[in-house]
Specification:
The chain has about 500 residues and is of the alpha+beta class. Among the domains are: about 1-90, no CATH class; about 90-185, OB fold (Dihydrolipoamide Acetyltransferase, E2P) (Beta Barrel); about 350-400 and about 470-500, no CATH class. It has helices spanning about 1-15, 15-45, 50, 55-90, 160-165, 190-205, 210-220, 230-235, 250-260, 265-285, 290-305, 315-325, 335-350, 350-365, 370-400, 410-430, 435-460, 475-490, 505, and strands at about 95-100, 105-110, 115-120, 125-130, 140-150, 170-185, 405, 470. Strands 1-3-4-6-5 form a 5-stranded mixed barrel. Strands 7-8 form a two-stranded antiparallel sheet. A hairpin with a 4-residue loop joins strand 2 (about 105-110) and strand 3 (about 115-120). The longest helix has about 35 residues, at about 55-90. The protein is globular and about 75 Å long.
Length: about 500
Amino acid sequence: MPLKRLKSLLLYISERKILIIALTYILSQVVFHAYLWQGIYVLVGLSFFLLIFKQGRIFIIVLFVILLCSLRNYYDLYIESEVRNYVDKNYLNERVELVGYVSEEPIYKHEYARVIFRVDSQESFLVQSNTSRFPRLEVGQVCTIAGNLVEPESFEGFDYKAFLRNRRIYYIVRYPILNCSDEREGFFLKNSLMDFKRKVRSIVESKLTEPQASLFLGVLFGEKRVFEEDFGEALRVASITHIIVASGYNVSIIFLGINKIFFFVSKRPRTLLTIFLIWLYCVLAGLSPSIIRATIMLSLTLLAVYYGVVSNINIVFFTSAFIFVLIDPRIIKEIGFLLSISATGGLIYITPILDAYIQKILDFTIPFERLKGSIYKFLQNYFIPSLACTIITMPIIAYSFQKISIIGVVTNILILPVLEYTLILGFITLFFNLFSSYISQILFLVIWAQLKYFELIVDFLGNLEYASHDVNITVSIVGAIYLLIGILILIFSPVDGKNYYLNLQENL
């Protein structure tokens, strides 16, 4: 049975060129980043075996994609080499004075602000610096940065230099002295959206106390805020940090909200409006990997609906991942990207299996149809997706943090139903704040109560004695676990399975 399903799977892939291209490119990037060029040579050699099985058409596609991957990585390394040669020759280990603009939203810690500047000289490059928390800097703001330009150093147990290199940050400025003007550079739309986000932030901070204000901004825009040490640790132990960063879940909620608000607009214009608005939100949320991945997936599916093409979730899923990795090959090593892709894979491929078994258990244990329907709907919306995501992301989390959460699923079940309404109510409240401060104040009280519930749940569960467990996981163990998960999905996946990522045809 498993071999028969495997043969059917390979046949399914071979009949769809876009899947061959997407899977080959992603695999090539994984191999390249693990073994550099030697891995690409091995893939080229293996591709020739396709000729033995008289698969000339697939061989040509695979060989072309491997060549594309090689050229993309060669170009990426060439740009890095040009930047390094220029900066090493002119600035490295010197007291410098650079003119650049704030490239990303500064991350504010308890004692300092971490800022990334883009310096446009003969070669455009990024530098990172830890500066004073005040005055607050805005995205696009032009500054003169005086300080010592050095290469970053790794810490014990953490390759910080490789971490920054993966983000194309090869240098840091120590002991910076900033002289910033009101001049702005960079992408105009991004700067304007960041200014709007700053205004929203000031409104929220004036209406809500901490940690509710930080929780709300995290849920709404994925803003990285600093919590008190105990509460921050409770968030991590309760496996709930993904909720306070903008994710694909937020995109799904916004998609549903747009369709409810603009129900009076005909289908095709509403589809284009939805694509435009979710990309605006994507920029507002800081272009995080999970947001971009979800936005690409949703955009592809919406375009399929717009042109009257039946959406195929497998093609949409792998094509969006392919586009993401094509744009930025180094994203393949980002934990945020890996968690986002794996969580989506869990929603698509594991939820149908869990759904089938949950239905069997309910049919066996609960004779009352109405009660059974209510319980099933709750489990379908919150328990099954949370469990699916937990199962498939746990190996990555365990390897990255050497710790697993025992109570993650329980925490998600208790918080997600409230969070859904918090997100929708948040946008409604901010809209009413433009017209009536009295109404918005009442709505902010409701939001405060919801977030207080969030805080109490995290405080209680995150501080339980056995809420988490330390583990020792290696890359080999992670690979073996995912191989086992893949085999189990292949064996137990129902033929007519239903995924819970997005069912656009029902909502448009």
